[in-house]
Design a protein that fits this description.
Layout: H1 2-18, E1 23-25, E2 29-43, E3 50-53, E4 62-70, E5 74-78, H2 82-86, E6 92-95, E7 99-105, E8 111-118, E9 123-130, E10 138-149
Parallel strand pairs: 1-6
Antiparallel strand pairs: 2-3, 2-4, 2-10, 4-5, 6-7, 7-8, 8-9, 9-10
């Protein structure tokens, strides 16, 4: 549990530093992962950052999560959500040898999705924020454990 909080803290610190440079693609990659759902944290009108384990959720594992990047600024994310798969305007794109960090915001700035994957450990955190401008914003933070699949 502590390592997840450490990862979130590290990603937030890294994300804040990366705001000055929202696009930093250092490597060309073409990776495919199979990810197992571990848990989900939900914050909405019903739950206040309540943790649900994978066995308690209807949500499934990710059988094919793909990341493709090409220097200097191309990053494609597929298989995590339809919003990210269709989003050609990721507002944050960071790729280096250790992590891939991405974020997309809808045109109304009321919905966003972001994620970070540690390429060494395979830990993936996916955050969805709804009603960003509202005092009653909602968050879903999902944690996965991923392993690389061979690209065919």
């Amino acid at each position: 549990m502590f390592k997840y909080y450490l990862i979130i803290l590290t990603s937030l610190l890294f994300f804040n530093q990366s705001l000055a440079k929202d696009i930093n693609i250092q490597e060309n990659i073409n990776l495919t992962f199979k990810c197992e759902l571990e848990k989900k944290i939900i914050k909405n009108s019903e739950f206040n950052y309540q943790v649900f384990l994978a066995k308690d959720l209807d949500k499934k594992d990710l059988s094919k999560f793909e990341i493709k990047s090409k220097q200097p600024e191309t990053l494609d994310i597929n298989g995590l959500s339809s919003f990210l798969s269709k989003s050609i305007k990721l507002s944050v794109k960071i790729v280096n040898k250790d992590i891939v960090l991405f974020k997309a915001i809808d045109d109304n700035s009321s919905y966003s999705e972001s994620g970070i994957i540690d390429r060494k450990t395979g830990e993936l955190i996916h955050e969805i924020t709804k009603n960003i401008k509202s005092a009653n914003s909602e968050k879903d933070i999902t944690f996965y454990s991923c392993s690389k699949k061979e690209n065919v």
